[in-house]
Amino acid sequence: MASDFTAEQLSGQLTAHILLADDEPRLLNMLAHLLREAGYQVTEAQGGKEACDLVLKQAFDLALLDLRMPEIDGFDTMAHIARVQPDCGVVVVSGESSFSAVSRALRHGALDYLRKPYDPDELLTTVARVLKKRSLLRAHEQIQQRLEKSEALHRYIVNNSPDIVFMLDADGRFCFINRKVEGLLGYDPSELCGEHFRHLIDDRDFAWDKYSLADPHISADNPKTLELRLKARGGRRATRHFEVTAFPIDPQSWPHADDAQTNLSSKSARYYGTARDVTERKEAAEFINYQAYHDLLTRLPNRTLFQDRLDLAITHARRDGTRLAVMFLDLDRFKVINDTLGHGMGDRLLQAVAHRLEQCLRKGDTLSRFGGDEFTLLLPSIHDEEDVRGIARKLIDAMRAPFQLGDHEVFVGISIGISIYPDVGSSIAQLIQSADIAMYHVKASGKDGYRFYKADMSIDATSRLQMERDLRLALKRNELKVFYQPQVCSKSNQIVGFEALVRWQHPKRGLLYPGEFLPLAEETRLISQLSERVLDQAFQDAGRWIRGGHPDLRLAVNLSPVQVEHPRFVETLLEKVKTHDFPTRNLEIEITENAIMSDLDQISEKLRELAATGIRIAIDDFGTGYSSLNYLHKLPIHTLKVDQSFVKAIRSGEDGACIVNAIVAMAHGLKLEIIAEGVETGEQLSYLRRLGCHQVQGFYYGPARPPAKITRSLGDTRTRAEAI
């Protein structure tokens, strides 16, 4: 582990000159103030063009850039900086959050990527880390250059050498050592003369004397060079690392008489050498090596180190005929906490989880952070599955207690998949993949538990792959159909609109409902293509009904978080509306609370743009997510849709009815329309009418139907729900 910076290095880091480039003056001034308060020298640029001009005139240690800037955007600015000042690091601070933008920025040389709105502490930490890393690398390069230039060692003693220069007699005792030893290790040269060289060597490197002086092959042309730890006098200083080079000399070339001024003893010098302090280089190399094999957030081994240790454990288990276990651990509810409280709190939670998990381990076990909120655990030398069960239960129990994050008390669970060597395979990939598959079976069955991998789990995984292939073919073969469920006025019983619902006419499995394939579509990113097909068909059908004598008929369509988060979401949707000549006042888009809260500021802006065109906004499955008044009054929301799970609970004395009462009352207070989903009985309908729920939909009025049946059923603008 690397030691802290010297005072000189820290001073250089705090006085670093930072260039800020953003086309939003308010954000630019806030960021500049934050960095100046932290002690940095800051120069501001109003956009990419001014930043490029400044780079030609001044030298900067670091540049913080926005991506969306007029004239010259962030990518071109990065390229300009790379050409003009290649030593200037770049960190992107942008509201652009798409994967392609992040990936492109990193490929252009960005050292980190922060999304607006940024957390001030996270930003300052990132800036300090980037500057520190670059300073370490520069220090490492400087030390390396120094070592390379110093390979030709002096043949004879130089009193003013920057290194410790010494001579040894035939027995290995010092007969000369220069005064550099006093500055580095605290010894007076006179007290070392006559002492054996072992007196300075750290106990961990004590075996050195078995090699160098007894080696018959060393000579002036073939010196012995080793890296050793040398002890400081009296423990007043820390042990330091030295590169020691020693080789024999001709006894005739060195005087035998004592010389007090040069600390010579009366014995003949037979060996001479130098000891160069390489502590900084060693620590820099160790730090870089640590970064390569550890997760810097949790200080746990990373994926690379875990796989190395697993490979070694498999080798030992194969040789000794023993067994080992691999666990794949995934946190439950982490994303909700991360999205709600922010990434800074999410990082603190990961650190706390890692610390708590480590307390459950045996000596010799290896816990690693595999990525995101996923961890892997290697358990070598197990006797049977009961050993593993005990550890799995211990890990799950350790997560039961709440985590305190500032003023927030949060709970997370953990899902664990387990594979056993050699039962499920003998390779690293097989063991990790099998544990991963078992973990997903835990997730599917309710989370917060553990399962051992079994062969039939791979069959399920294969089925998912087949399902994905079928879904891709379905998009090509137009097997996806759009059905429509009426939305009915609870007072007049008249149909006011239809919700478009996708169905899949599978060639072998028949008609599939959304719950059977939409999660897979989201996971595989096929949801965008699927949603485009649904929108095209829905606009065609509903547009035909509107133009056919139902001008007030409303079309409600569900949009996935993937669509809403896309940078061109607004443009894409409006282009489709224009292509189909669909009236915006007849369109209502339904999005979930979680989709909104994933990036409240960005989503808010998009929804305002859509609302300005006349499109209505509805919150789907309201009550199952954040249900926060904070965003309800900020956004142009027109409708709340009560989740069907609450409607189903409308019976005497059930909690679900109380939740419905609260949601309807809140909607009335905010002057929002309210639609209750999943209405199946007359009792539910009557209850909702008494509450003042504006509209309802559900099987009480029949299931969703294909467009042909809707067309036949629509008579006139006063069509009543019983006709469907």
TrEMBL record:
<dbReference type="Pfam" id="PF00990">
    <property type="entry name" value="GGDEF"/>
</dbReference>
<dbReference type="InterPro" id="IPR052155">
    <property type="entry name" value="Biofilm_reg_signaling"/>
</dbReference>
<protein>
    <submittedName>
        <fullName>EAL domain-containing protein</fullName>
    </submittedName>
</protein>
<dbReference type="Pfam" id="PF00989">
    <property type="entry name" value="PAS"/>
</dbReference>
<feature type="domain" description="Response regulatory">
    <location>
        <begin position="17"/>
        <end position="131"/>
    </location>
</feature>
<dbReference type="Pfam" id="PF00072">
    <property type="entry name" value="Response_reg"/>
</dbReference>
<feature type="modified residue" description="4-aspartylphosphate">
    <location>
        <position position="66"/>
    </location>
</feature>
<dbReference type="InterPro" id="IPR000160">
    <property type="entry name" value="GGDEF_dom"/>
</dbReference>
<dbReference type="Pfam" id="PF00563">
    <property type="entry name" value="EAL"/>
</dbReference>
<dbReference type="InterPro" id="IPR043128">
    <property type="entry name" value="Rev_trsase/Diguanyl_cyclase"/>
</dbReference>
<dbReference type="InterPro" id="IPR029787">
    <property type="entry name" value="Nucleotide_cyclase"/>
</dbReference>
<dbReference type="InterPro" id="IPR001789">
    <property type="entry name" value="Sig_transdc_resp-reg_receiver"/>
</dbReference>
<feature type="domain" description="GGDEF">
    <location>
        <begin position="322"/>
        <end position="455"/>
    </location>
</feature>
<feature type="domain" description="EAL">
    <location>
        <begin position="464"/>
        <end position="718"/>
    </location>
</feature>
<dbReference type="InterPro" id="IPR035965">
    <property type="entry name" value="PAS-like_dom_sf"/>
</dbReference>
<dbReference type="InterPro" id="IPR011006">
    <property type="entry name" value="CheY-like_superfamily"/>
</dbReference>
<feature type="domain" description="PAS">
    <location>
        <begin position="150"/>
        <end position="205"/>
    </location>
</feature>
<dbReference type="InterPro" id="IPR000014">
    <property type="entry name" value="PAS"/>
</dbReference>
<dbReference type="InterPro" id="IPR035919">
    <property type="entry name" value="EAL_sf"/>
</dbReference>
<dbReference type="InterPro" id="IPR013767">
    <property type="entry name" value="PAS_fold"/>
</dbReference>
<dbReference type="InterPro" id="IPR001633">
    <property type="entry name" value="EAL_dom"/>
</dbReference>
<keyword id="KW-0597">Phosphoprotein</keyword>
